[in-house]
Every structure is written in C-alpha cells, then in structure tokens.
Amino acid sequence: MNIALIAHDNKKKQLINFSIAYKNILEKHCLFATGTTGKLIGEATGLNIQCFMSGPLGGDQQIGAKVANNEMDLIIFMRDPLTAQPHEPDVLALLRLSDVHAIPIATNIATAELLIKALERGDMHWREIIKQSKKHNKK
Ligand SMILES: O=C(CO)COP(=O)(O)O
C-alpha cells in the first residue's frame, strides 16, 4: 500500500512517536510524506520515505495528485486545528480529493491508531481490488 504521512508543525512530534510505535507495520509499505515531516520521521525511525515538497510549498498538492491518480491508499495527516496555516486552501484541497476518491484519511491520533490497526489486519485489501479493476478498465 502507498501511505502518506503529513503533520503540521505542532503535531510533528506526535507523528514521529506514532511512526516509531508502528514502524513494524509502516516498513511493509511504500511511504510518502511532505518534506519536513518525511525528513524528521526518516531521521527518527530509519524508515525509507519518499519526500515531496514541504507542505506550504506544494507538498499537500503533490500528495493530492497521487490521490487523484489512484496512487495513494491511506493518508495519516496530523492536522493542527488551532493554528492558521498559510496554505490552508491546499490542505482543504487534499481533504476534498480524499473524499472524492474515498481514500481513508486520519486527521488525528485516535483515527490514525484505528487505521493503522485496520491496515495490519488486512482491512485495506479492497484498495488492491479497486486498483486492479481500474487498471483493467483502462485497457
Ligand atoms: O504543512 C504541512 C501539511 O499541510 C506539512 O508540511 P511539512 O511536512 O513540510 O512541514
């Protein structure tokens, strides 16, 4: 599965700790992240992460493009709801695209815990089926 990891500044520590706690699950998947988040998680965990641009510079939009192309299966996005973000429109665009394409997205630690456990249990297998059928329909 392709998994995106994103955290606003006040939530980065939380996502780093989450990534350490669930490294054994995350390491079985292809990981993507916005620039600063990916760099920090990579340094803290040794996980291999493909980093996009920093969020304010377009990283959320790059992840959104992967959602639109059916190339992202799950997003863990620790949002900071108490701080104004200069790139709020980009954040909303990513949330919107995730809804358009029905991509599971956690925006807080409680949902992130549920999704990562569901992933490990195999509850995300339907994504493989959808990807296969979309590929097949393109032929
Ligand atoms: O701002 C972000 C998400 O909206 C995160 O970007 P960084 O990981 O580059 O800090």
From TrEMBL:
Catalysed reaction(s)? dihydroxyacetone phosphate = methylglyoxal + phosphate
- Any GO MF annotation of the entry: methylglyoxal synthase activity
Which InterPro entries does the entry link to? Methylgl_synth, Methylglyoxal_synth_AS, MGS-like_dom, MGS-like_dom_sf
A Pfam family (short name) is MGS
Residues in the active site?
A: D60 (proton donor/acceptor)
What family is this protein classified in?
Belongs to the methylglyoxal synthase family.
Q: What is this protein called?
A: Methylglyoxal synthase
